[in-house]
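To whoever is on call:

I kicked off a structure prediction for a single chain this morning and the downstream step that reads the tokens threw a length-mismatch warning. I double-checked the sequence; it's 310 residues and nothing unusual in it as far as I can see. Pasting both halves so you can look.
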Amino acid sequence: MPRAFWSVLFLAVASCVDARPVRLVAGRSDTVVVNSLEAVPIAVRLVDANGVERRARRVRYRLIKGPAVALSGDGRVRCDGPGDAEVSATSGALMARVTVLCRPIERFRLPRVLRLTIGAPPAPLEVGAMGVDGKPVDLVAGTASVRDSQVATLVDGYVHGRAPGLTMVDVEAGDCTVSIPVEVIEESRTTALLLPHGQYAESLSMAAGELRSWRVPPGRYEVTLFGDGVPAHLRLASHEMNCGAFPGTEQKYLCIAKDRASVIVHHVEPAGRGRQATGSLLVHRLGDFGSESGSWRPRRTLDRCIGFIG
């Protein structure tokens, strides 16, 4: 009885393990996206009857069609430009027909800083890849990761802000590796309590000759004034702050605030003679010098393929 039992058990286990390869697969659904300008291998795998994958050996490759593609005997493909190709991969009696989508990337078009606000919807990670023909690349196969997950996270292509601070999203595709700065901002109800990566916004309606001021703690700031009355009637000024205008702007400044500093808005028309002016004030406190961790600093040795900044 025991001997017969073990024989039946052995046969049952053996019937569940069939390591014979039944399919040859490549990429995802036998489709490979190539963003590199260099030759890259076509990854081919054997799949057995149980769905277990393993590396295929002694694979023969043949280019079926695709004039813009060069194919080596060991299955390395090089794309000279955008286009589609068909490649056959054969291992023993198994064959797979592989679609190669050539989308070589020459450079990225990146935002200067991706800014998120805590409590606001996430922002899409938009990396503008440009091809060798100067046109946008419609398919990008790469990886993206956030350096500091306490500040932000990346889920399904969207960046979610978690805590005030700065970090980087590192993107790799083709031959390119780039780093996108991400700042997570927290809204504040008052300028007097603004912390690094805090932001204060207020809508303004000011009479002629009126002057208003907002105290700010020492630190670095971006101060912006915009709206209907700007720049015709409303003007930005400051007290105990060293400010410089952003190039090409009239009412946006980068400032360093000292003790007892204030942001000032003045309706420059004479009192009683001008009309009401409206606008909006935005005070954004940046991170302090020397207080940020290395998790947001660009990895210059890795930043390749940056053609221009948007």
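Update from on-call: the warning came from a stale cache, not from the record. Cleared it. Sanity check on the structure: The chain has three domains: 19-102, 105-186+291-309, 198-285.
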